[in-house]
Amino acid sequence: MESNNSLEDHKLNHYILHKANTRGHANHGWLESYHTFSFANYQNEDRINFGVLRVLNDDRVNQGMGFGKHPHDNMEIISIPLEGDLEHQDSMGNTTVIKEGDIQVMSAGTGIFHSEKNKNNNQFVKFLQIWIYPNKKNVTPRYDQISLDLKDRHNKLQQILSPNPDDEGVWIHQDAWFHIGKFDKEFSSSYQLKKSGNGIYAFVLKGDFTVGNIHLNERDGLGIWNRKSIHINATSEGAEILLMEVPMEL
Question: Of all helices (H) and strands (E), which one includes residue 86?
């Protein structure tokens, strides 16, 4: 049982809530995509970005289908597979497959081309594609991916991304930290922001949570700023959440 003081401490005063059913939606037949922020044909002047977080796309690609080769530059691009196998090829010579538990990152820098395809002909592939504005422009393009132990996110926050090559997870050219946690029902945790002036965007992958005093359901997003820490409580069994700490200044 928490005291009234601690409950008051958890109250969020500076936040923006994006319910799952308010996201942009595109169904191209082979691809179904939900856009938290403006992307392609979904344009919403109130949803351009959250700090340096520019794109959060929730994609499902049909069997054997995918994105043809296309260009990017001066963006940090993170892919997080949720189900199935995603085949990646790029102009740096990389050909690889990523699956649940893997994290992929590309620093587009001066420019790259890449393609993404559902590796399998008998199941969907589902993944998040996230774009972050970098803190350095025109860097040499780079690619990296790692496989993480899913047990390391049970009832704790597993770091999957940071600004530091020697730290846990992949790294990017930005003062950002990503964590994923999968929690038993009524398990609570807290997250301390790592850099002053950063905000945090919470995205529910599965189940239900309260973050501070805000109730969240599957695929809801919550952007929070002017906080040094947040309190997270899982309100359903096996609830899973992605936390993205990012600078608020572009």
Answer: strand 85-90
Q: Strand, coil or helix: what is 152?
A: helix
- The three-class DSSP label of residue 121 is coil
> 10-residue block means of pLDDT along the chain (250 residues)?
54 96 96 97 97 98 94 97 95 95 97 95 96 98 96 98 97 98 98 98 98 98 97 98 97
Model pLDDT, residue 9: 77
pLDDT at position 8 is: 62
249 is in an annotated binding site: no
116 has binding-site annotation: yes
Q: Judge contact between 115 and 69, C-beta under 8 A.
A: yes
- pTM for the complete prediction? 0.95
49: domain CATH number is 2.60.120.10
70 labeled binding residue: yes
Q: Classify the C-alpha dihedral 165-168-169-173 as positive or negative.
A: negative
Taking phi over 0 as left and psi of -120 to 50 as alpha, with beta for the rest, 221 belongs to beta
| 88 in a known ligand binding site | no
How many structural domains compose the chain?
1
166 DSSP assignment: T
User: Is residue 235 classed as helix, strand or coil in its secondary structure?
Assistant: coil
- Residue 57 sits in which domain range? 4-136+151-247
pLDDT of residue 66: 93
